[in-house]
Amino acid sequence: MFLAKLRKRLGELDLEVEFCRDAPGVTALFGPSGAGKTSVVGMLAGLTRPDAGRVELDGRALYDSATGVNLPPEKRRVGYVFQEGRLFPHLSVRANLRYGQRLTPPGQAWADFEQVVEMLGLEPLLRRRPGRLSGGEKQRVAIGRALLASPRLLLLDEPLASLDAQRKDEVLHYLGRLRGRMAIPVIYVSHQPEEIVALADAVVHIQAGRVTARDSLELFRRRLAAGEAHSAGGA
Ligand SMILES: Nc1ncnc2c1ncn2[C@@H]1O[C@H](COP(=O)(O)OP(=O)(O)OP(=O)(O)O)[C@@H](O)[C@H]1O
């Protein structure tokens, strides 16, 4: 379903990664702070231009240095949730969610408003402004807004990083509900093994700008049990 082959010089870091997935499900990008995970996600979303490589989604090139293709973010059909929700503060939760829907090209919508609201438990929040939401609630709305644009790939960049333990559990619970009900691939950036065990189907290890291993969830669990995959620390 997607292929990412990316090369970019980022200051001291020479980033060169390749990974792919041919089914829905959650691919975790796991690695320490500074490994290049956020940079990879930015290139998939079209926010940063690679020096070279190819990004392919459902057989279509979003970026290809060989042919000069580089679709802008709004043409990629890629949803992106950042560490902090980045909701529109002046709009209600309902209007934030509707904004996501309006980004969908005609005939391409797969996400249903009522269903997304139900899956993420957003009904009681619909009339509120983001300023009156907890961190966990904000993240749930941000995930809902991204889904309602009916993306073909969803990028979640450490969506729990800014939350306390209780809020983390809350959002993790809702992400767990989404998992398995989505027909699109999801890329989940984290350096927390517990999140990966709870959500991922496959794990791509990134260190110092390189893919150092590709694991099934089972293999990742075994690594963890053997003490080979540590919480990587840092933000
Ligand atoms: N535009 C840029 N110019 C120069 N260096 C950059 C640029 N963007 C990122 N870097 C560097 O590239 C490295 C990778 O950063 P990146 O944010 O992708 O890592 P990360 O794995 O997501 O880390 P974290 O978990 O802390 O977010 C860092 O050393 C960063 O300083």
Structural account:
One of its GO terms (cellular component) is membrane. Residues 1-233 form the ABC transporter domain. This is Molybdate ABC transporter, ATPase subunit. With 235 residues, this protein is α/β, with parallel strands linked by helices. The chain has a single domain (2-215), classed as P-loop containing nucleotide triphosphate hydrolases (Rossmann fold). It is 30% helix and 28% strand. It has helices at residues 37-45, 93-102, 113-119, 135-148, 165-178, 193-199, 217-225, and strands spanning 2-10, 13-21, 25-30, 52-57, 60-64, 69-70, 78-81, 153-157, 185-190, 202-207, 210-216. A 6-stranded mixed beta sheet has the order 7-8-9-3-10-11, with helices on both faces. It has a 5-stranded antiparallel beta sheet with strand order 2-1-4-5-6, covered by helices on one side. Strand 1 (2-10) and strand 2 (13-21) form a beta hairpin. Helix 4 packs parallel to helix 5 (165-178). The longest helix is centred in the middle third of the chain and has 14 residues, at 135-148. The radius of gyration is 17 Å and the shape is globular. The protein binds adenosine-5'-triphosphate. The site of adenosine-5'-triphosphate (ATP) has 14 residues, from helix 1.
For CATH, the homologous superfamily is named as P-loop containing nucleotide triphosphate hydrolases
CATH topology: Rossmann fold
Percent range of helical residues: 25-40%
Strand tally: 11
Helix-strand pattern: EEEHEEEEHHHEHEHEEH
Largest beta-sheet details: 6 strands, mixed
Structural class: alpha/beta
Number of domains: 1
Instruction: Please tell me the overall pLDDT.
Output: 92
What's the architecture in CATH terms?
3-Layer(aba) Sandwich
GO molecular function: ABC-type transporter activity; ATP binding; ATP hydrolysis activity; molybdate ion transmembrane transporter activity
Domain ABC transporter: 1-233
GO cellular component, one term: membrane
Keywords: ATP-binding, Nucleotide-binding
